[in-house]
Structure formats: C-alpha cells, structure tokens
Write a structure and sequence with these properties.
Blueprint (H helix, E strand, L loop, with lengths): L1 H13 L1 H83 L2 H51 L24 E2 L2 E2 H20 L21 H17 L71
Antiparallel strand pairs: 1-2
Length: about 300
C-alpha cells in the first residue's frame, strides 16, 4: 500500500505543473466567459436606457414642435381674421366719412365718357388726315400719269398697228390706270397738246409736195449690176405673191382688225423704172391740201420752250 501511495504521489508531483496549467486555463476561460456575459448584460441595459432616454427626448421635442406649429396656425388665423375685420371697418369708415361711393361712380362714368369723346375725335381727325393724304397722293399720281401719257403718246395704237398697251395678248385684261385703259390716257393726254400745236401752226402749214419719181440707174453691164437686177427681179416676184388677207403673227383674233391696204391686189410689172400701181389716183388721192397734225420731228415741245417754237 505504501509503495502504491508513493508511486501515485510521484505521479501526481510529476503532473502538478500540467494540472496547474490546465486549471489556470479553465479558470481564465470561465472568468472571461463570466466577464463577457456581464459586459453583454451591461451593454443591453445601457442600450435600453439610451433608447428610453432618446425616445423621451424625441417625444418632448415633437411635442414642442407641435405646440409651435399650432401656435403659428392660430396666429395666422387670428391675423387673417383681424385683417378682414380691419379691412371691412376701413372700407366702411372710408365710404361713410371720406368718400362718396355714388359721387365717385358718377365721376368715373364722366371720365370714361370724356375719354370716349376724345378717342372719337382723335379717330375722326386721323381719318380726315388719312383721307386728305390719300386724295393728295391720288391727285399727284393722276398728274404723274397725265405727264407720262403726254410724253409716251407715241406708244399709242394706230389704225394699222396695235401698241404695247393694246396687244392682242392682253384680251380681257388690258393695262389700266385708275380704272381707265392706258390707251385712253394716252389719247386724252395728247389731244389738247395737238390742238394747241395746230392752233399755233395753222397759219404756217403748207401742203406736202409729192415725192419725185424714182429714176432708173443706168450703169454698165457689170457683174454687180447683173446681181442687183437678179435680186430686184426676185423681190418683184415676191410682191406678186401677196395674199388677200393680212398676216396675223399673234395667232388669235386681232383687237383692231386691219381692213386692208391699198397695195393688196396691185400688180407690179416691168423693171424698177415702171414701179407704179395700176390704179386710178383720183379714187384715193384728194385735191385737198395735206396738213400735218404735229410739228416735224416731234409732237410735244421741250420743257422750257414756248409752245410753237422749233
């Protein structure tokens, strides 16, 4: 027994340090776990206390903000009601002791009426000025058209030739000025000028002498003379092919149809020395002297010169 105890004692002494280390390890783990549990418990308690404190403080702040909001609302309501009461009272006091509503209404009506009268007068004056200006412009335009018509009288149509303002292409829409065809303006404007010219020059007019007959050219039978004779013969041959109707290049009806010329149907025979029509001159030549309607080389006198001066 003693030997067994002694062996066990030796074994225990050899394992003392290991057992001590293991015990210390177990105790440290136990104490660490206990401390951690205590810290976790304290943390949970601290968080709970903090949460309750923050909730209490937040509810107090929310209550304070709600009170301030309700106070502002009530103040705004009271201010609006006070403003309405003051406005009504001031309006009543002003109407009763300072201003007469009906007098001001009558005054406003009179101002409106006077403004309408002034506006009507201004509109009438403006219409009159516009009308006078339009009449003045129309008068100036008519004078301008009359002046241009006196200068452009040579563009008027004649019995044998239509003018540029009476073209066959303008059927139904001839050029007009102030609702009157331009041809009528030209005819009306030159008529008094021609009358005055005729009155001034009626004493100095003389009958126009007949032109001398064309004499044949006598030259030698050269090459140029023969060519000239051939060209003359061709021209005479073409004159014999004149039709009985006038040639119309417009392709439509003529505005002023030409009845025909005295040359139609006339036969030319012989050479250049016998170019005379075989007609009786007494039928188309009168014994009355021929008077020109306007001065020679021009119809209207130049600006600055006396009427009747060349």
């Amino acid at each position: 027994m003693a030997e067994l105890f002694y062996e066990k004692t030796l074994l225990a002494e050899s394992l003392r340090e290991q057992e001590t280390h293991s015990a210390v390890r177990i105790e440290s783990v136990h104490r660490g776990r206990k401390v951690r549990l205590t810290i976790a418990s304290d943390s949970r308690d601290a968080l709970f206390i903090e949460r309750c404190t923050r909730g209490h403080l937040g509810r107090q702040r929310a209550r304070r903000l709600r009170i301030e909001r309700d106070t502002r609302w009530q103040l705004a309501l009271f201010n609006s009601m006070a403003t309405t009461v003051q406005k009504r009272f001031r309006a009543y006091h002003t109407r009763k002791y300072r201003h007469n509503f009906y007098a001001r209404k009558a005054y406003v009506a009179s101002v409106v009426q006077r403004g309408e009268a002034v506006r009507y007068e201004l509109q009438r004056n403006m219409d009159e000025q516009v009308r006078d200006r339009l009449e003045q412009q129309e008068t100036q335009a008519r004078e301008r058209v009359n002046t241009l018509s006196m200068r452009l009288h040579h563009l008027r149509s004649t019995a044998t030739c239509t003018g540029i303002y009476n073209s066959a292409y303008h059927v139904g829409h001839h050029p007009t000025a102030f609702g009157v065809p331009v041809e009528e303006h030209l005819r009306t404007a030159i008529r008094p000028v021609i009358k005055r010219e005729l009155a001034v020059r009626s004493k100095s007019l003389r009958p126009v002498q007949s032109l001398p007959p064309i004499k044949p050219q006598k030259t030698e039978m050269s090459y140029d003379y023969v060519k000239q004779e051939e060209r003359q013969e061709k021209w005479i041959a073409k004159t014999k092919r004149i039709a009985g109707q006038d040639f119309n290049p417009n392709g439509g009806q003529r505005a002023n149809p030409f009845p025909g010329s005295i040359n139609i149907g006339t036969d030319y025979t012989g050479g250049p020395e016998t170019l005379e029509r075989k007609v009786e001159k007494n039928k188309w030549v009168t014994d009355e002297p021929f008077y020109t309607a306007v001065p020679l080389n021009r119809i209207v006198s130049s600006a600055g010169s006396q009427r009747g001066e060349l």
